[in-house]
Amino acid sequence: MNSSRERDGHPLSVYQRPLFELAEFAPARKAYAERFAFAIDGELNIDACRKALMELVENHEILRTRFTRKGNDVHQEVVELGHAGSALNMIDLCDADPDAWVGRLNAEASLPFDLAAGAPIRLCLYRIAARRHILTVIFSHFILDAVGFSVLMREAARYYRQYALGQHPIGREERSQYADYCDWERQRLGTPGLLSSSAHYWASVLSPPPPRLALNTSRRPVFKSYSGSSIAAEATRQSVLRTASELNATRFAVLLSIFIQLLHLETGERDVVVGAPFGVRGHPDTMEMVGFFLNVLPIRVGITADMTIAELIHAVSSRVGDARTHRHYPFESIVANSCKGFTLDRSPLFDVMFTLRDSHSGPWSSDGLSCKPIGLSAIAAKYDLTMYVRDMGTAFIIEAEYNSDLMDSMRAKLLLDRYVTLLNRLDAAAKVETHQ
């Protein structure tokens, strides 16, 4: 992938474009600001911490990129080194309530990013006590995916260790940047007929148009609401992993299948569509690149009257495999080709989402520091219901993020508890029919 030194006027990627519009849309702003927090216990070297985080901003141009409109288009403009400002905001809360940082974090997430003038990421270090700090990271959803975030955490650890020892990181690597990927993508997608088979596939999957799920217990507002909250629970891994092994399926396919079973049981709908994110890193230069490489795709599955759980898992596995084959076809094109009209009260194509995430440690879990991720309750919701499953290695932590204008906490808890129950009893249920 060619690395361009001209950093003005690069297009957004086709996967960024719809999310940029949502990040700019005031009602959706909180829902599309990603928030992470890490508790750091021990003797933290503040200067090394600041320098390590600044090193990240200098090394990865997407973290110091502005997004400006030119006519109907949006372009990326990389801010030169030395003009990006301080990477880390420091706040001393030693004399405040120990949980005061939570309110500050949520308030920060509610503030709009000035994407045309400022950075799309905010890093803040709260000093809670002499040997306890909270590091918070807030960024606009469309600049960074989970793989890129993990790259940042690994690099932050390396830079911190070097600065803490009084060393300076060895010369900055020349590497392809996300803007280079966007240029490469634009040229690639200009190839005639490149995605024609994918266009045909998605048109066939979504014809006829799928029905909508009725999970809400409250009347749907005229305009789509992004008000949200979340609750979490724990589920065993063993039954999922054993079922996946016995049926030659992936964790993802098994977990998604049981989520689809839950939606069928709760609504009575036999034609179910769930959105799921798929990684689109294909070029070798993108494997460790910090940027956004996700495409949200609709997984549509039909449930017959006598279908067993095992048969459902096989059906979902097939759909997921096909979706992965055609994962590069942009979601905005799927919507444009499949939706004959838009409504203002809901998302296009589907109202529920499923995401499987692997756990990640904080940036400084070694070096005499204990650094642990802190679970944060949602303050907004992208969809009616999103089921996040995080694989912690010993158990699944499952978070149900729900639109609080459409269902109350009791309804959300019922859905989450039932999902956990279905997962925990998988060993004895593979031959059971889906309606049981």
What is the spatial order of strands in the main beta sheet? 5-6-7-2-12
pLDDT < 50 runs, ≥5 residues:
none
Number of helices: 11
* CATH topology description of the largest domain: Chloramphenicol Acetyltransferase
Global mean pLDDT: 89
> What percent of the residues sit in helical stretches (DSSP H or I)?
25-40%
N-C termini distance:
52 Å
How many discrete domains? 2
Radius of gyration: 22 Å
How would you describe this structure in keywords?
alpha+beta, 32% helix, four-stranded mixed β-sheet, 436 residues, single chain, Chloramphenicol Acetyltransferase, 2 domains, five-stranded mixed β-sheet
What can you see in these coordinates?
- The protein starts with 9 loop residues before the first strand and ends in a 12-residue tail after the last helix.
- Strand 6 and strand 7 form a beta hairpin.
- The chain folds into two domains: 10-182, 2-Layer Sandwich (Chloramphenicol Acetyltransferase); 194-359 and 376-428, Chloramphenicol Acetyltransferase (2-Layer Sandwich).
- It has a five-stranded mixed β-sheet, covered by helices on one side. Strands 8-14-13-11 form a four-stranded mixed β-sheet, with helices on one face. A three-stranded antiparallel β-sheet has the order 1-4-3.
- The protein has eleven helices and 14 strands.
- The longest helix has 19 residues, at 146-164.
- The chain has helices at 17-24, 46-59, 100-110, 146-164, 178-189, 196-205, 238-246, 251-267, 309-325, 331-338, 409-424, and strands spanning 10-11, 33-41, 65-70, 73-78, 89-92, 121-129, 132-140, 228-235, 271-279, 294-302, 352-358, 370-373, 385-391, 396-403.
- It has 436 residues and is an alpha+beta fold.
- The protein is globular.
